[in-house]
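SAMPLE LOG
Freezer: B-3
Tube label: C17
Construct: single chain, 115 aa
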Amino acid sequence: ITTRVQNMPDFPAGFTVGISNGHGKLLCVFSTNPNDGVVLPRKESFEIVFRIDFCGFAPGEYFVEVAVTEPGIRNVEQAHNALRFEVHPFPIGGALPYDSRFGEYFPPHQWQIDG
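STRUCTURE (predicted):
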């Protein structure tokens, strides 16, 4: 997700990305936070790039919300449903495609069997 930010407020601001499913349930929120060492520049305009290497969501429709925040206090600017994306069924190592009956999220994982 690439976002161009303009006219930043004059305080240490944060940026959040939230992902909700097609039913409006918030699944996860990611944020920059000056207290965690992620400091946004105090410039008139800049670009933020946010990546998820493997989303692992079950097939379905999802929506992205973005916001500029005063961390821990309030949302300064917010865009609901700023982006819509769809996840299609995908194989999970066998013949069955992964779908929502197995849960809403399928994180990367591995098995180890000893003995």
